[in-house]
Design goal:
Blueprint lengths: L4 E6 L4 H15 L4 E4 L11 H11 L3 E4 L7 H6 L1 H21 L4 E5 L28 H21 L2 E7 L1 E3 L12 H14 L4 E5 L5 E2 L1 E3 H13 L2 H7 L6 E4 L5 E2 H12 L4 E5 L8 E2 L4 H6 L7 H14 L9
Parallel strand pairs: 1-2, 1-3, 3-4, 4-5, 5-10, 6-9, 7-12, 8-13
Antiparallel strand pairs: 8-11
Helix pairs in contact: 1-7, 2-4, 4-5, 6-9, 9-11
The structure holds NADP nicotinamide-adenine-dinucleotide phosphate (NAP).
The site of NADP nicotinamide-adenine-dinucleotide phosphate (NAP) has 23 residues, from helix 1, helix 4 and strand 6.
Length: 328
C-alpha cells in the first residue's frame, strides 16, 4: 500500500500490545512505511469518552489495534466483577465508536476464549458463541468481550467499516503477570516452582487433580497471528467469518494436562522435588481447547513450542530486577 499507514496500538504497555508493538517496530525496521502511535494510561484513559474522542480526532489513525483491557485470573474476576464489566465495556465502546467517528477504516480487537459457553463442545469453534451459559466466575468479563465482537460486527454491517476480532486461547510470555493472586496458571506455576527451587523446598502442592487440560500460546505467536489476520484481504476475512461472525480463534490447537505443564515448568526452573496434587480443591473445566481450523486453513499456525516458550518466559522473568517480589 502506498503512503504511510498510521497505527494506534491501544494497550501497548501490556503483554499482548507490547508483543504487537515489537512486531510492528520490526516491520518498520525492515522498511514498512508505518507510523506507530501509543499512549500510556496516564496520557489517555480509555474509559474516558471525551479524552478518547479528542485523541482519535487529533490523530486520525488508519488502523487501530485494541489490546487494552482490564485482565485478570479467577480471583480478580471474582473479586472485582463490576470493574471487569464496566471498564471493558467502556474501553470497547470508546475506542470502537470514536475510531469510527474519526474515520478509522480498519480495527482489530483482542477478545478471549472465555466468550464461549462453559459446556461448549471441545475443541471450541467460533460458532459456539452465544449457544449456552457462560462460566459464572468470569461472566461479566466475557459479556464485555462478547459486546466487543458485536460492536465490531454492527459497525461493519451498518457502516461498512472493516473491524475484526481475534479470540486468543491462554497466552503467556514476556510481559506476563506473575502476581501471586491475580496471575493465570502458567505464570503462577513459574513463580511457585522458581520460589520452591530457590528456597530448596522438597515439595510443591498444586490445586486439583492435575488432569484438566489447557492450551497455551506464546504471545509472540499471538502478535504474529494478529497481524496476519489484519493483513488478510477483506474478501478472505469475510468469507471465513460468515454468516454473522466477525471473530477468529487463535491458538495452537494442542492442549496439555496441568500435570504435564507442572512437570515442564519444574524442569525449566530446575525444581527437583515432588509435585503433589490436592484433589480436595476444584479442578475447574476439564478441557479448554480452541478449534483453530479456520485460521490454519487461511495459512497461519503457531511456531513456538511450549517448552521453548516457557524457557524464554522464565529467562525474561529472571531478568526482571524485582522478579522475586514482582506484583502488577
Ligand atoms: N493474557 C492472556 O492470557 C489473554 C488471553 C486471551 C485474551 N487476552 C486478551 O488480550 C488483551 C490484552 O491482554 P494482556 O494480557 O496484554 O493484558 P495486560 O498485560 O493487562 O495489558 C492490558 C493493557 O491495557 C491497558 N489498560 C487497561 N485499562 C486501561 C485504560 N482504562 N486506559 C488505558 N489503558 C488501559 C493496561 O495499562 P496499564 O499497564 O496502565 O494497566 C495494559 O497496558 C485483552 O483483551 C485480553 O482479554 C489475553
Amino acid at each position: 500500500m502506498a503512503g504511510v499507514r498510521k497505527f494506534f496500538i491501544a494497550g501497548h504497555g501490556g503483554m499482548v500490545g507490547g508483543a504487537i508493538l515489537r512486531k510492528l517496530q520490526q516491520r518498520k525496521h525492515e522498511g514498512d512505511t508505518v507510523e506507530l502511535v501509543t499512549q500510556t494510561r496516564s496520557e489517555l484513559d480509555l474509559t474516558d469518552q471525551g479524552a478518547v474522542r479528542s485523541f482519535m480526532q487529533a490523530e486520525r489513525p488508519d488502523v487501530v489495534i485494541l489490546a487494552a483491557a482490564k485482565v485478570g485470573g479467577i480471583h480478580a474476576n471474582n473479586s472485582y466483577p463490576a470493574e471487569f464489566i464496566y471498564e471493558n465495556l467502556m474501553i470497547e465502546c470508546n475506542v470502537i465508536h470514536q475510531a469510527f467517528s474519526a474515520g478509522v477504516g480498519q480495527l482489530l480487537q483482542l477478545g478471549s476464549s472465555c466468550i464461549y459457553p462453559r459446556e461448549a463442545a471441545q475443541p471450541m469453534r467460533e460458532d459456539a458463541l452465544l449457544t449456552g451459559v457462560l462460566e459464572p466466575t468470569n461472566e461479566p468479563y466475557a459479556i464485555a468481550k462478547i459486546a466487543g465482537i458485536k460492536l465490531c460486527e454492527s459497525y461493519n454491517r451498518q457502516h461498512g467499516v472493516d473491524y475484526r476480532s481475534v479470540m486468543p486461547t491462554n497466552l503467556y510470555g514476556p510481559g506476563d503477570n506473575f502476581h501471586p493472586e491475580n496471575s493465570h496458571v502458567l505464570p503462577a506455576l513459574i513463580r511457585r516452582f522458581h520460589a520452591a527451587q530457590r528456597d530448596g523446598l522438597d515439595e510443591v502442592t498444586i490445586w486439583g487433580t492435575g488432569t484438566p487440560r489447557r492450551e497455551f500460546l506464546h504471545v509472540d505467536d499471538m502478535a504474529e497471528a494478529s497481524l496476519f489476520v489484519l493483513d488478510l484481504s477483506r474478501d478472505i476475512y469475510e468469507a471465513n467469518t460468515r454468516p454473522m461472525l466477525s471473530h477468529i480463534n487463535v491458538g495452537t490447537g494442542r492442549d496439555v494436562s496441568i500435570a504435564e505443564l507442572a512437570a515442564l515448568v519444574a524442569r525449566v526452573t530446575g525444581f527437583g522435588g515432588r509435585i503433589v496434587y490436592d484433589p480436595s480443591k476444584p479442578d475447574g473445566t476439564m478441557r479448554k481447547l480452541m478449534d483453530v481450523s479456520r485460521l490454519s486453513e487461511m495459512g497461519w499456525t503457531a511456531r513456538i513450542g511450549l517448552e521453548d516458550g516457557i524457557r524464554q518466559t522464565y529467562a525474561w522473568f529472571l531478568a526482571q530486577p524485582d522478579h522475586d517480589l514482582r506484583q502488577k
